[in-house]
């Protein structure tokens, strides 16, 4: 089974839009009094009264006091706070994380929170990219589908063989691992290079408790995280596996780097 990694795009912020927004906030902020009603606070920040009240209800923001008529009033210093809150919410940061970020005084811990959010968004973008490619593939190749992979521990061995002749070294390793009492769940063939003579890595899904140092010829023990993958079934014999190394996908030639093999016999 082939699995391909899916890149995600880069995003750019138009400079003119950035300058326009900055200037607008500066003009809005000019001439502010020390305290503002909720309407004035909304006009100043460009944020409607409804989300301001919501941020109060979830303890992200609080009014400073109430005026003589009992209405909430806000301070000039809260303008920056609510802009940060709104920006983080638009970036899909959870409410509880924003609360922790606002309450944290240690700058290093605040930076660690931001780095965590960045990584989370990158992971979601990757998943969305895979999903988009899957939906687009329906027009050209119905056999492509999505596979949700659980975390796996894989031990890798170097191998070299002619096309279609990896069954023998793979079975030899399976016998060797079984003789050591290592249960095998399934195996992988990772293409590295070559056309007629193929350099590859063969991998086996094993228990996390395995000590790779005790296994002869093991070149790496990889902890593969959970992932959403595009998959393409290959049901032909090993002798014709070369035909599955590449895939014409929407006019682009994709290289299938990893095959998951459930029955190498």
Automatic annotation (TrEMBL):
GO molecular function list: DNA binding; DNA-binding transcription factor activity
Keywords: DNA-binding
Domain HTH merR-type: 35-104
Gene3D superfamilies on file: 1.10.1660.10
Organism superkingdom: Bacteria
PROSITE patterns the record matches: HTH_MERR_2
Coiled-coil region(s): none
Family matches, as PANTHER family: MERR FAMILY REGULATORY PROTEIN, REDOX-CYCLING DRUG-SENSING TRANSCRIPTIONAL ACTIVATOR SOXR
Protein name as catalogued: MerR family transcriptional regulator
Species this chain originates from: Sutcliffiella horikoshii
Source taxonomy: Bacteria, Bacillati, Bacillota, Bacilli, Bacillales
């Amino acid at each position: 089974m082939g699995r391909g990694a899916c890149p995600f795009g880069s995003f750019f912020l138009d400079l003119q839009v950035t300058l326009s927004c900055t200037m607008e906030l500066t003009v809005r902020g000019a001439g502010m009094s020390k305290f503002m009603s909720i309407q004035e606070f909304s006009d100043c920040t460009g944020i409607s009264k409804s989300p301001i009240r919501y941020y109060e209800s979830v303890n992200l923001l609080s009014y400073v006091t109430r005026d003589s008529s009992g209405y909430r009033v806000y301070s000039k210093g809260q303008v920056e706070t609510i802009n940060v809150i709104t920006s983080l919410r638009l970036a899909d940061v959870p409410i509880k994380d924003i609360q922790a970020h606002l309450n944290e005084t240690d700058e290093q811990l605040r930076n660690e929170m931001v780095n965590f959010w960045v990584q989370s968004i990158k992971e979601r973008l990757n998943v969305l990219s895979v999903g988009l490619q899957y939906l687009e593939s329906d027009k050209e190749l119905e056999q492509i589908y999505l596979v949700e992979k659980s975390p796996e521990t894989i031990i890798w061995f170097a191998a070299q063989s002619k096309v279609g002749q990896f069954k023998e070294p793979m079975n030899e390793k399976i016998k060797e691992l079984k003789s050591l009492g290592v249960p095998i769940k399934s195996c992988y063939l990772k293409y590295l290079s070559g056309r007629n003579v193929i350099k590859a890595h063969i991998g086996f899904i094993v228990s996390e408790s395995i000590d790779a140092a005790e296994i002869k010829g093991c070149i790496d023990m990889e902890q593969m995280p959970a992932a959403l993958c595009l998959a393409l079934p290959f049901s032909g014999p090993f002798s014709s596996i070369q035909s599955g190394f590449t895939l014409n996908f929407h006019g682009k030639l994709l290289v299938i780097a990893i095959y998951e093999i459930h029955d190498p016999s």
